[in-house]
Each structure stands twice: as C-alpha cells, then as structure tokens.
Write a structure and sequence with these properties.
The chain has one domain: Sandwich (Jelly Rolls), CATH 2.60.120.200. With 355 residues, it is α+β, with helices and mostly antiparallel strands. Strand 11 and strand 12 form a beta hairpin. Helix content is 13%, strand content 30%. This is Xyloglucan endotransglucosylase/hydrolase. Keywords: Apoplast, Cell wall, Cell wall biogenesis/degradation, Disulfide bond, Glycosidase, Hydrolase, Secreted, Signal, Transferase. Its main location: secreted. Its EC number is 2.4.1.207.
Length: 355
C-alpha cells in the first residue's frame, strides 16, 4: 500500500473508531433486518406509504396526488445499509425510485449523499439503475454511473446495498459488487464524511429520468408501486451536527469497532469479488463519469481506475458503445427460440428488449 494510502487508513481508524460500532456479521449477505418501526419513520405521502401487517415491508406508491417515502429514525456515520426492492411494472417512464443516504436536511449547501436511483422506461422490466457519490455539496461534480439490470426487477425483489467506510464505498446488487470508490487524497471533501440518514422514495422525475425528459409519467398506469423489504441498518447512530455517537449507540453496538466494519465480508474486495464486479460492469454499464471527457475536459476524477483499453469501449460522453438499451419491437413474438446461427456472444449479452 502506498504511503498516502496507509496515512488515510490510519487517519480513518483513529478518527472514526470513536463513533462507529458494528456487530460482526458472518456473511455479507445474511445481514439482520429490522422492522420498519424499529429503524424508520414515514417521510411523506401519507396513505401512499403502506406498511405490511407484520411491519417488515413497505409499499411506496406514486399517483397523481403524491409520491411517498420514508427515512431512517437516526443518522449513521459509516456502516452497511441495504433493502430488497421490487420495482413497478408496465409503463414507468419518468418514474424514479431511490434508496440512498443523505444529510441534505441538515447540510443544505454542503451535504453528502450516496445513491441508488432506479429510472423507469416505456417498456416493462427495462429499468436502469444509477449510482452516485457526493461529498460536501459537490453536486456540480456528480460521479454518476448507470447500468442495465441482468434481470427483470419487477418480477421479484432484489437486494441493493451500500457499504460506506472511511476508506472506501462499495455498491452491491444482490451478492455482486457493481462499483467501488476508494478514497483518494485528491478527492478532498468530495468523499462523504458526515453522518447520513437512509431514505427510500418514489417520485415523478418526468423532467429528466427517461431520455432526458422526453417521456413523462403517464398517470393512467398509476398507482406505481415499489416494495421494500429486508431493511438493514448496520451502523452506529450519530448526531448529524456534533458528528458524535448518540447515547446508547444502537442496535448491536456494544463498543467502537471500526476494524469490524473494515474486515467484514461485505467490506473486503476479494479477487473473486473484483472479477465479478469487472464482469458486471463490462456487460451492463451504460455510462461512467470516468470516461466522460466532454463534461470533465480536465481529466477523470482522481479515484477513477482508468484503462486505455477499456476506454475504447466508451464514447467521449462516457456512454458505452457496446451496452445499450434496446427498444422492444412491436409485435415481437414471445417464446421464440434463438436461431441456429446465433453466436454464443450474442446469446450471452443482456437483451433488455426481451423483458
């Protein structure tokens, strides 16, 4: 590890060890969940937020009257946060479902944020997912990446998770890491470092979400329903202003244990995980800010792991030349077998037009 890398790790351990306490989890994907009332509170939407009878899942609805959302009852400084999410079916252009961490309600101009944003489409099942990282109000330097999903997210729930440590961030879909952001000294305050709450929302993003706002939400298909379950909050509660742990710590927090977070399965990128992440990105990533030479003519962000070979697969705008969303043809017959001449490569590529 480079000297500066050791410095940041040591600094992170020294500073954050006093405000983070986690219970070691045997498996990255067998994390304990909480009932809604134990960890969350309604945010907006009134009757458009529907809790299950056992309080373990929530339906968020969007209709002409309102979207809906909920927020964690506490703020957290670092940790592992996840939810299983099932997205709305049918025509969903303009619809945005989000699962994210933020402190925008406390730090209006210098907020931090970590996003999963799900962007609807004109064809059922063809949702895109976008991740983003903001630190200290760096919204003018958004670090977006967008991906197609290798499954239909409207048929069943899939787990989406964020690992946030003082040294790195990992976004997961189910058990596959799809993005890693390693803290680099050149990021400065762009790396999220203040306590954040966890949010889940559904709302009308007609202005931008589908083809830059070309296709709007069509409320004849409403209500649009997104289901959240398996809610996990693994971190220590912290005061967002004082940036110190709240009295009593939190569920599963017996003592400061930053080392426990950094060594948990979900925080360690093994060679196998990194290979799976690279494979996912090669097959499903449609845009990355790291290759957007138009928006950022001065060069990529310091944390970008730029490859000259990989760069050839992206346009100057950071859009993939190989991974593109395909419009589903009208009148296409379902259930047809692939022709005998179809190549193995064509069969293995994600074809979102079949969803």
């Amino acid at each position: 590890m480079a000297l500066e890398g050791r410095f940041f790790l040591a600094a992170g351990l020294a500073v954050a060890a006093t405000c983070l306490c986690l219970t070691a989890v045997a498996s990255a994907f067998a994390v304990p969940s909480v009932a809604f009332d134990e960890g969350y509170s309604p945010l907006f939407g009134d009757e458009n937020l529907v809790r299950s009878s056992d309080d373990k899942s929530v339906r968020l609805l969007l209709d002409r009257r309102s979207g809906s959302g909920f927020i964690s009852s506490d703020y957290y400084l670092h940790g592992f946060f996840s939810a299983s999410i099932k997205l709305p079916k049918a025509y969903t252009a303009g619809v945005v479902v989000a699962f994210y961490l933020s402190n925008g309600d406390v730090y209006e101009k210098t907020h931090d944020e970590l996003d999963f944003e799900f962007l609807g489409s004109r064809w059922g099942g063809q949702w895109r997912v976008q991740t983003n990282v903001y630190g200290n109000g760096s919204t003018a330097r958004g670090r977006e990446e967008r991906y197609l999903l290798p499954f239909d997210p409207t048929l069943e729930a899939h787990r989406y998770s964020v690992l946030w440590a003082p040294t790195h961030i990992i976004f997961y879909i189910d058990d596959t890491p799809i993005r890693e952001v390693i803290r680099h000294p050149g990021m400065g305050g762009d790396f999220p470092a203040k306590p954040m709450a966890v949010y889940a929302t559904i709302w009308d993003g007609s202005a931008w979400a589908t083809d830059g706002g070309k296709y709007k939400v069509n409320y004849k298909y409403a209500p649009f329903a997104s289901e959240f379950s398996d809610l996990a909050l693994l971190g220590c509660r912290a005061d967002p202003v004082l940036r110190a742990p709240r009295d009593g710590g939190g569920a599963g927090c017996a003592e400061p244990d930053l080392l426990g977070l950094l060594t948990a399965d979900y925080a360690v990128m093994t060679p196998q995980k990194r290979a799976a992440m690279r494979a996912f990105r090669a097959r499903h990533m449609t845009y990355t800010v790291c290759y957007d030479a138009v928006r950022y003519a001065a060069g990529p962000f310091p944390e970008c792991d730029v490859s000259d070979v990989e760069k050839e697969s992206f346009s100057a705008w950071g859009e993939s030349k190989n991974v593109v969303m395909k419009a589903r043809g009208r009148g296409r017959r379902r259930g047809r077998k692939a022709g005998a001449g179809a190549s193995a490569g064509a069969m293995s590529r994600l074809d979102v037009s079949s969803s």
